[in-house]
Amino acid sequence: MQLIFLSTLERKVEENRMALAQVSITEHQGAWRVWWSEPDAEGKQIQDSWYEGGEWKELLLSFREGLRVKRAEGYYPLVDPALTSLSDSGKNRDVLMLQYYGEMNHSTEVFQELRGWRRQQASKEGKSAFFVATNRMLYMLSAYLPHSLEEIMNIPGFGKRKAEAYGEEIMAITAKFERHTSFPLDWVAAEVAESDFEAWINEQRRSREQLEQQKLFQRRQVLEGVAAGSSLAELEGSTGMKRQELVRLVEDLDKNGYDMEPLVDLELTHVADGVSEKVKELYAALGDRFLKPVMKALYTEEELKDMDVNDIYEKLRLHRIRFRHERNNAAEEEGSAQTAV
User: Fold this and answer.
1) Same-domain check for residues 96 and 65
2) What is the percent of the chain with per-residue pLDDT over 70, rounded to a whole number?
3) Closest CA to 180 of 148, 145, 138, 149
4) Which tens digits make up the pLDDT trace of 213-226?
5) Can you give the CATH number for the domain in which 168 is found?
6) Looking at the predicted structure, is the pLDDT value of residue 89 above 50?
7) CA atoms of 145 and 155, how far apart (whole Å)
8) In-domain check, residue 143
9) Structural domain tally of the chain?
10) What pLDDT was estimated at residue 85?
11) Residue 86 and residue 94: Cα distance in Å, rounded?
12) For residue 185, what pLDDT is reported?
């Protein structure tokens, strides 16, 4: 067993006496565990397992939730665990400060124009608006108003490639407005009130943890639903997730070793055998990393005009799960046969 993290906490139990407890993270043969150890009424150390499994994100959620409970009981760490802190020193803190200033000081008019551009660009590229630019990136653009590619690359999230791809269209918006600040952005720190910045960081942390808790709850709902034989439509209703997001989660859970085959079999029941075999052949020939080439090979442009592309991608993702299972099973059988020989 390998010790990854250890922190000591204390709680006042009498006027002049403190009780000490420890929280630790360990790893053994690919499995993570979070342990909590505290003394009982007689002073004997009682150990409790907060988490055991292979998911680091779930481990962190269990770790943070456990600490919140223990802090409510009066335990406080002798040294605040770095795992619970968002306000890192160095580069990450500098980026957070630029984001904070952008959110607090952006031009609403510029932001709305940039949102309209992002929506059109995302539609043109057939991707989520988030992948074009996040809201935080738009806030910073509308606060700092860059007028050149070099200035755009000073905005966190815009590397050279993204700046060159979108720079001209962005500058067509930002250059229309008068700005009262300058580049480089090394002046921002002096303009930010430290107490307000720390409060904002704490709020970001709380929001992030709430979102992670929600995602963890949804994952558990999906796992329980699949085990109970639920369909995608039923899981949509119980989790409140969008269908595309739900199917991607199913793929992710399958990659992490959870059994998604009952759901795959249920959803592909009414797909014609000929289509299933053709998809399997295309994955074998074209590879299973990208879906678009498979879709283009499966249907003509004329056929696609009358079809729901999102539905096609959904079915292709489910077919991909089945294809990978069959491929892995075949490889294991071949390996076993060679070992037997």
Assistant:
1) no
2) 95
3) 145
4) 888 888 889 999 99
5) 1.10.150.80
6) no
7) 10
8) yes
9) 4
10) 45
11) 12
12) 96
